[in-house]
Structure formats: structure tokens, C-alpha cells
Design brief:
heterodimer, A: mainly alpha, 18 helices, 0% strand, B: mainly alpha, three-stranded mixed β-sheet
Chain lengths: 407, 426
């Protein structure tokens, strides 16, 4: 019997120097190498998700459901109108105007950073569900620099981001250290660290150090103006954080595909035993990967407190971003460029979702459902292929990244 | 070091302590430090002459007003001496097998000392806390049992959280629309459905099991939050199912302390105990159990002797979903009696940790569940008692315990050999 672990190191994963767009798309989607096929699965996944989302809206439309008994025709058209207005709002809110597009970029910024965090973990075979906690720890330290230090913006902003990055790296590295030293599975430790960070933020927000003066509710002081991220286009909310996110995409790409450390990350991810026999310090790689991953999430956390009104921290200020990031990294197949596009898509869904809630009265949580559906279809290309009867060249790949709870 | 290795490896291995011995030394040191901590903080942290009063009966019980009054400082000093003695025994490393027991006893004594300190000069309902411990352990134990059913056949079920959340939601809606028994059945059926989804994604489509589980969790969170806002807020009557009442077992229910803990609870508590015993007997004394375990340890060998690996996996993962459904129903039909967004708050993951802590054994799951239940009960009751410790830190307690547990204070536990690996028939 051959050890399945030994088979996972594929030549194209190891050598990305000569990677062409076709190869990347093939790997990113798991379907053929032509452009048309490569885009087919994500597009069909999006379509399927929207269809199922429509069904969910239809069966939960309480007002229209009441009509079915008296006037089925009216009920049917009322249901359709509801779905139509919801999806129209989703589109208008994400791409319909100049403001909508900048809102999409604005919403995509933390998603891209947190998505990169999860993606780096995936590439090294680690499942970082702790982006949420790392965002909280990073964000709090970033905010502390933001109101505790006085400096001109040109120094203050980088300094605050640096603080957030270090805080996130610390929180992520802790999970890496636990795994390296004790074999504690990172899925559980990062989730527990999320809760611990959440309560720690709550505690700090009611302490005199962080709490806004003259307030009794858990809300922090406001970051100095020199630490607030300036916007890119005047009135629109999109800010320099978006450029930071783009820089991070490039940096992660360089780290993973052009540096020795990144090579070690990916080698350990492909096969930890192989990495060990090749002389790599696997324990150190776990700490480093979780540190880098946490650092990126920390930057996303800085974005949440320094990039938008009210430039303060409050309870659970990271919101769902840390969890959306998992979906996003899966969608982007853990490639930085894939994460960028996935982040833009989810940013659009988020910006549109808010519009949808306002204009059509559909709770924004529907976006979470859509995201989960997209991921199901993306993570199981065979499912999409089965539903739409697509024939493909390469069916052998299985996307196993985990092998249980052992160290 | 290098010189030694060159002269002969035997010499080195003789001199170096085995991992168990090194672990015993580390734990012994921890215990001695713990004793010092208990003595210093809990023993001398209270005013001399203060007494702590522990109520051992609930108001209105048949044997009322059973109390234990004790000198707070004296008790902690005695406890510290016992912990230090146990730590010394562990450090001598002669009885390595008892290391974990000594550690567990020391931690329990530390908890008692902590309570004495917190209740110094006050009265504290110890039995109330122990009853809460049992109640709060139920969803954790059920989550652990659900995970165990799946992992014994080598399917990682990280979707327990989502299964609990969804079934809790279904339980409240159906329970409110019909009655709580129908709600219970609907929740269990939904659990089976979610188990089947996980099984299909993991077994039929070979999706990475952790990814499949996380997707189910995201989906469950999104869908239940969406429906809670859209349906439950429009029809609040659909979110008040009522709850299962306690059923007191005659005679046994009147025993002080143990009675209210184990024999004056509702159907969910009894059901959980029955499940633990049934799964234990099933796994280790029946054909089904032997087959399940062989599929989890060595699917190829199981296949060779004619066991249908995939069918066994489907069946157990669906059964695991049913157990999670029972746990989800507990949340809305017993504990809170209404659904709140993201009300599970990580219980499913704590259940996974309990499964690991309990070493993939049903009885271990129950014990681990009780430990987590105790941590949560402690957090709740200390809030009432008013200690100088901020409530946020008390809230962190169950999660910190989980990390410590998973990081292997209890020693390395071994998962089923094929855990997490898809089986592809050749």
C-alpha cells in the first residue's frame, strides 16, 4: 500500500517559475486549461448559488406565502418581484454606479487581506480559522498606536499598520507554536483563540486605557486623524488600505513563489514528512506560517479600526470577515491572484448585500448563504460537473489538505 | 553530545529520560507551583477566621438545609499540602501510570480551593453549580459523541457546530408550530440530513473533510441568521417552543447532591447518559462496532474481508448527525427555549475538543463534557458571587480549558488510524 501523503507533491506545485496563465487557471479551477473551461466552473458555481438563493428567498417570503391560498397568481408574481428587486439591488449596489464600484473595493479590502492570511496557511497545509481573533488583536494594537502615538501621517500610518501586523503575527504564531510543540490541531486552537480575543477586546474596551472618555459603553477612543487611512477619491470611502491589500497580494506571491521560505512553506504543506527528510525544520515552518498568516489578518484588523468611521474599536469589530476569508481563500484556490479576484467578488456581494437589505428588505445574511453555496460548488468541481454534465480532461485530483488530528 | 552519539547510542538512550518521564517531571513541577499558588493566593488571600458556606441542597428539596461550613484559610492550606504531596509523588516518577490521575485530582482540589476563596465570608450553592455542570455538559457531550461516531469510521466531522445550530433552529420552529416532541423529531431528522450532506461531500465527492465541514458551518450560520431575521422576527410566535420539563426519579432524586444532579433532570440528560452507554456497548461489544472501528483503523483490510466501507461510513456519519440533532434540540427545547443568532458560540468545537480529550471513547466524551460543563458553570456562578476577576476572563475559561486540553496536558491521544482520509476503492 502506498502512503497517500507521498503522492501529493505534484511537479507543477513545486515549480511555478514557468507558470503560465493557462496553467494557473487550470490549477485554480481544476477544469481543463483553456480560458473558457477555466472560467466555466466559477461562473456556474455563482449561477447555481444565485438560483438556490432565489429559492430560499421564495420559500421564506412570509407575505407572499400568505397569498398562495387566496390568489396563487398574485402570490407567484409577488414572489418573483421580491427576488427580482433583491438581485437588482445586489447588482446596483455592487457595480451599478461609480460609488457602488468604490464601495465594492472598500468592502473587498479587509476581505483580500484576511483571505491572503487563510491562503498562506492553506498552502502550508494549515487551516487558519483564527483570522477573526488575529484581526482583533492586530486591530487593537493598531488602534493603540493610532491614538497613543503622535506623529505625522506619513510615519503614523505605517507605524500603526506595523503594530497591527505584529499583534496579528503574535496571535497567529501562538497557534503555530502550540501545533509545533504539542501537536494541538490548529483548527481548534485558532477557534478558541478567536473567542479569547473577543472577550479580551470586550475587557479592554471597558478599561480606562482604551475606553472613550465620558463613555460607559464598550467603545474605544478615536484614532488620531494622522493615523486614519486617507481616502483615494475624495468623498468615496475606498482608502489607501486597498493599495496595501494590492501590495500584500504581490508580497505574498513573491514570498510563496520566489523566496526560499515560501518554498519551504509549500513543501511542508505538500508533505510534512518529505519536508522533514529534506532537512527543513517543520516545527519552525508551522510557527512561521501561522505568524505570516496572522500578520496579514492583523493588517485586515487595522483596516477595520483605521479605515472607516467611527475610527474606533467596538465589540466584535472584525465581524464576519475572518470567516468569509476562509471561503474566499478556497474560492481563490489559495493563489494570491485568485484571492484578489475572489475578494473583489465577495466585496461586491457585501456592498450589494447592504443595498439589498436597505432597498429590498432581504437580510444581508443571505450573502453568507450565497458564499457558502459558491464554495460548495467550487470545492467540489465534480458536483458542478455532474449537475451541468461537463466533460473534463483531468478528474483525478482530490483536494485533500488535512490528514486528521495528529501532529 | 556529538561525541556521545559517536561512542554509542545505547549510552545516550540510557541516560536520557523517556518522554513519559519528562512529561511526569514537567507535570510534577506544575503541580508544586499550583500548590504554592493555592497556598499563597487562596489560602492567604482571605482574611483569617473567614468561613465559606457551601449549600449542599436546593431550596425546597426533601432534605433541606444541608450545609458545609469551613474555615476558608484552613481548607486551602490543607488542600495546598495535599497538592504538594501529590506533586512530590509525581516528581519521584515511580508510579508513572498515576500521573494523570494525580494531575486531575490536583486540578479538582484547586477548583475547590478557588471556590472556597471566592465564597469566603459568603454562602455558595455548590449543588446549584453541580446541577448546572451536568446541564451545561450535555451539548458538549453530545457534540463529542457525534464527532466520535464519525471519526470512528475515519470521517472528520467538523460540522458539528453547524449541525447544532441548524437543528436548534429547526427544533424551535417545528416545536413552536406543532409541539416540542415533533420539534425534537424534526431536529433529529435535520441532523440526519446534514450528516448525509457531509457524508456525500466527503465520501462521494472526496472533498477535503475539513473544508466540507467548514462550508456546512458557514452555510448553517448564514442560513439560520437569515431565516431568524426574515421569518422569526416576522412571526415571533414561531420562536417560543416551551421546554421539556424535569422528570424526577422517585427515591434517587431525593439523594442530596447526586439526586438533583443526575436524577431530577429532563429527558435530554437521561437520553445523553443512555446514548453514552449504548454507544460504548455498541462500539466494543457488537458486530456493528467492530466493523465501524475496522473501517476507521484500516479501511482496506475491512474492505478485503467484505465490509462495505462506504456504507458503514454513510451510516455512522448520518447517525452522528442524528446525535448532533438531539444536541441542537436540547439548546432550544430545554436550555434557552428560544433561538438566537449564532447561539452555539463554539459549543460544537468544544465538543470536538472533548472528543479528543476523551480519547475517542464514549465514556471519555462524557467525562470531558462534564469538565467543560464545570468550567462553564463556574463562569456563570462566579458572576453571581462577585469576585474581583473581570467577567470577561471568566467567560474565556471554557475556551482556555479547551486549548490546554487539546495541547495535550492529558498526554498524547491517538485518533483512528485512517482519520480524515477518503477511501477510494481500487
Amino acid at each position: 500500500m502506498t502512503d497517500p501523503d507521498l503522492e501529493t507533491s505534484e511537479p507543477d506545485e513545486q515549480d511555478d517559475e514557468s507558470e503560465t496563465t493557462g496553467d494557473f487557471l487550470a490549477r485554480a479551477t481544476g477544469v481543463g486549461s483553456s480560458m473558457k473551461q477555466a472560467l466555466m466552473v466559477p461562473a456556474l458555481a455563482l449561477l447555481s448559488a444565485l438560483i438556490i438563493g432565489a429559492i430560499i428567498m421564495a420559500v421564506t417570503d412570509v407575505d407572499s406565502l400568505r397569498l398562495w391560498g387566496d390568489d396563487p397568481g398574485e402570490a407567484f408574481s409577488s414572489t418573483l418581484r421580491g427576488i427580482g428587486s433583491a438581485y437588482k439591488a445586489l447588482f446596483v449596489g455592487s457595480l451599478g454606479s461609480r460609488r457602488a464600484i468604490t464601495e465594492t473595493l472598500f468592502a473587498a479590502t479587509p476581505l483580500i487581506l484576511a483571505g491572503l492570511a487563510v491562503a498562506v496557511g492553506f498552502q502550508a497545509g494549515l487551516f487558519n480559522i483564527g483570522a477573526n481573533g488575529q484581526m482583533h488583536v492586530g486591530g487593537m494594537i493598531g488602534l493603540w498606536v493610532g491614538f497613543g502615538v503622535s506623529a505625522p501621517a506619513i510615519i503614523h500610518i505605517p507605524l500603526a499598520i506595523l503594530g497591527a501586523v505584529l499583534g496579528g503575527a503574535l496571535w497567529g504564531g501562538l497557534a503555530g507554536l502550540l501545533k509545533a510543540r504539542t501537536g494541538a490541531h490548529e483548527v481548534i486552537t485558532t477557534i478558541m483563540l478567536n473567542f479569547i480575543a473577543l472577550f479580551m477586546v470586550d475587557y479592554l474596551l471597558t478599561g480606562s486605557f482604551f475606553q472613550a472618555e465620558g463613555r460607559n459603553d464598550p467603545i474605544s477612543r478615536r484614532a488620531d486623524e494622522s493615523a486614519q487611512f486617507p481616502t483615494l477619491f475624495g468623498d468615496f470611502r475606498v482608502h489607501i488600505g486597498f493599495l496595501v491589500a494590492l501590495g500584500a497580494v504581490w508580497l505574498v506571491w513573491w514570498l510563496m513563489y520566489r523566496s526560499t521560505i515560501g518554498y519551504e512553506f509549500r513543501a511542508v504543506g505538500a508533505n510534512p514528512d518529505g519536508g522533514k527528510y529534506a532537512g527543513m525544520n517543520v516545527a519552525w515552518v508551522y510557527v512561521a506560517v501561522m505568524g505570516v498568516s496572522g500578520a496579514l489578518a492583523g493588517a485586515a484588523g487595522a483596516n477595520q479600526v483605521l479605515g472607516l468611521e467611527p475610527y474606533r474599536a467596538f465589540s466584535n469589530f472584525a465581524g464576519d470577515t475572518g470567516f468569509d476569508a476562509i471561503a474566499l481563500a478556497l474560492l481563490g484556490r489559495s493563489h494570491p491572484v485568485g484571492v484578489l479576484f475572489a475578494g473583489l467578488l465577495f466585496g461586491g456581494l457585501r456592498a450589494g448585500g447592504i443595498q439589498m437589505q436597505g432597498a429590498a428588505g432581504i437580510p444581508v445574511d443571505l450573502v453568507l448563504v450565497l458564499q457558502a453555496l459558491i464554495i460548495v460548488f467550487i470545492a467540489a468541481p465534480e458536483l458542478v460537473k455532474a449537475v451541468y454534465r461537463i466533460k473534463t480532461v483531468d478528474d483525478t485530483k482530490s483536494s485533500s489538505i488535512s490528514t486528521g488530528w495528529g501532529s | 553530545m556529538t561525541a556521545q552519539t559517536m561512542t554509542g547510542t545505547e549510552e545516550v538512550t540510557l541516560r536520557r529520560a523517556t518522554p513519559e518521564q519528562r512529561r511526569a517531571r514537567a507535570i510534577g513541577i506544575v503541580m508544586v507551583v499550583l500548590a504554592a499558588f493555592v497556598l499563597w493566593v487562596f489560602g492567604f488571600g482571605v482574611d483569617g477566621g473567614d468561613t465559606s458556606t457551601f449549600n449542599l441542597s436546593l431550596p425546597g428539596a426533601r432534605f433541606e438545609n444541608i450545609k458545609w461550613e469551613v474555615d476558608s484559610r484552613l481548607l486551602s492550606i490543607i488542600l495546598a499540602v495535599i497538592i504538594a504531596f501529590l506533586g512530590g509523588m509525581v516528581l519521584r516518577r515511580t508510579y508513572l501510570r498515576w500521573t494523570n490521575v494525580a494531575l486531575a485530582v490536583s486540578l479538582a482540589l484547586t477548583a475547590l480551593s478557588f471556590l472556597t476563596w471566592a465564597a469566603a465570608g459568603k454562602s455558595f450553592s455548590l449543588v446549584g453549580m453541580l446541577v448546572s455542570t451536568v446541564v451545561l455538559s450535555i451539548p458538549v457531550t453530545l457534540g463529542a459523541l457525534s464527532g466520535l461516531m464519525c471519526e470512528r469510521v475515519a470521517v472528520i466531522n467538523i460540522a458539528i457546530e453547524g449541525q447544532l445550530l441548524t437543528t436548534a433552529f429547526v427544533g424551535t420552529i417545528v416545536g413552536s408550530a406543532a409541539n416540542i416532541w415533533v420539534g425534537l423529531v424534526a431536529a433529529i431528522a435535520t441532523g440526519a440530513l446534514l450528516g448525509a450532506v457531509l457524508a456525500v461531500l466527503a465520501i462521494r465527492y472526496h472533498i477535503d473533510q475539513i473544508i466540507a465541514g467548514v462550508v456546512i458551518n458557514i452555510f448553517a450560520l448564514g442560513l439560520t441568521s437569515f431565516l431568524a431575521r426574515r421569518v422569526l422576527s416576522a412571526e415571533p410566535s414561531l420562536n417560543s417552543p416551551g421546554r421539556f420539563a424535569s422528570v424526577k426519579i422517585p427515591f434517587l432524586g431525593d439523594i442530596p447532591v447526586i439526586g438533583p444532579m443526575f436524577f431530577d433532570q429532563n429527558m435530554f440528560v437521561y437520553g445523553t447518559f443512555i446514548l453514552v452507554i449504548a454507544i460504548h456497548l455498541g462500539l466494543f461489544y457488537t458486530r456493528w462496532g467492530l466493523r465501524s472501528r475496522s473501517v476507521g483503523e484500516h479501511p482496506k483490510a475491512a474492505d478485503t474481508v467484505g465490509i462495505d466501507v462506504h456504507r458503514t461510513r454513510y451510516r455512522n456519519v448520518i447517525l452522528g448527525g442524528c446525535i448532533a440533532g438531539f444536541g441542537g434540540a436540547f439548546l432550544t427545547l430545554s436550555q434557552v427555549a428560544r433561538f438566537e443568532e449564532n447561539m452555539t458560540a463554539g459549543i460544537g468545537f468544544i465538543g470536538l475538543a472533548a472528543m479528543i480529550f476523551g480519547r475517542w471513547m464514549p465514556l471519555g466524551a462524557l467525562g470531558a463534557g462534564l469538565v467543560f460543563g464545570f468550567a462553564r458553570a463556574l463562569q456563570q456562578k462566579l458572576g453571581i458571587l462577585g469576585t474581583p476577576i473581570p467577567s470577561e476572563f471568566l467567560s474565556m475559561l471554557p475556551y482556555i480549558v479547551t486549548i490546554i486540553v487539546v495541547a495535550g496536558v492529558v498526554g498524547k491521544s491517538r485518533p483512528p488510524a485512517a482519520d480524515g482520509q477518503p477511501y477510494i476503492k481500487q
